[in-house]
Specification:
The chain is an alpha+beta fold and about 220 residues long. It has a single domain, classed as Bira Bifunctional Protein, Domain 2 (BirA Bifunctional Protein, domain 2). Helices cover about 25% and strands about 30% of the residues. It contains four helices and ten strands. The protein has helices spanning about 20-35, 95, 100-115, 195-210; strands at about 10-15, 40-45, 50, 70, 75-80, 85-90, 125, 130-135, 140-150, 155-160. The strands form two sheets. Strands 1-2-6-10-9-8-7 form a seven-stranded mixed beta sheet. It has a three-stranded mixed beta sheet with strand order 4-3-5, with no helix packed on it. The longest helix is centred in the middle third of the chain and has 18 residues, at about 100-115. The termini are close together.
């Protein structure tokens, strides 16, 4: 095994404009590819908006009460907004194994491990991308979304985790094309975790996530 440098860890305060974040992410991906900048994990929050992935079906945009952006990632429609922790993960898979499926699985596992530290038992669901748990009524509910793009083996986009967003905002779309399951959040589950708590749990779970991506020498 070879030891790679730890990715740069950036926390942005305030609400970050989506178009600006997208441009920044593209520029960083090019710099990582060129060997000019390090890998990066960027944790932030967006104003209320919807993003359309490459598989988005216009019929699933039910009530576009917020701006809609073409994200360029895989997947369908998703919501971002205040109270949701968004993580943009930019890694070089030429160094960490050229296996997109393994990367997505590791990303899901990272968020699941972080939620466990926050007292939430979360899981994957067969055939449905994202992070799932049981809400207070015992229904299976989505607490986190995964959406990635891999461009010349550099990863873009990443995950979103519902800390305490306004869950009614998800009603403008069919989230990720899945109509039959509700969305939930840490707050809706009765967990009073702050963004600081969430970020600390993600940081504590980061080494295990990165270890899963190390290619065999």
């Amino acid at each position: 095994m070879h030891n790679l440098p730890q990715p740069e860890w950036i926390l942005s305060a305030g609400l970050i404009d989506y178009a600006a974040a997208l441009a920044y992410m593209e520029a960083r991906a090019a710099a990582i590819r060129a060997g000019e900048r390090s890998e990066r994990i960027w944790l932030l929050e967006h104003p209320p908006l919807y993003t359309a992935g490459t598989s988005a079906d216009p019929a699933e945009l039910l009530d576009p009460q917020f701006p809609v952006y073409d994200a360029g990632r895989g997947g369908r429609y998703t919501y971002h907004g205040p109270g949701q922790r968004v993580g943009y993960v930019q890694l070089d898979l030429t160094q960490r194994g050229r296996d997109v499926r393994a990367y997505v699985s590791a990303l899901e596992g990272w968020v699941i491990d972080a939620l466990a530290l926050l007292g939430v038992e979360a899981r994957r669901a067969e055939g449905r991308i994202g992070i799932w748990t049981d809400d207070r009524d015992g229904r299976e509910a989505k607490i986190g979304a995964i959406g990635v793009r891999v461009k010349r083996w550099i990863t873009l986009h990443g995950f979103s985790l519902n800390v305490a967003p306004d869950l009614t905002h998800f009603g403008g779309i069919v989230p990720c094309g899945i109509a039959e399951f509700p969305v939930t959040s840490l707050a809706a589950l009765g967990k009073t975790a702050s963004f600081g708590d969430v970020d600390a749990a993600l940081a504590a779970s980061l080494p295990a996530f990165l270890d899963k991506l190390r290619p065999n020498d």
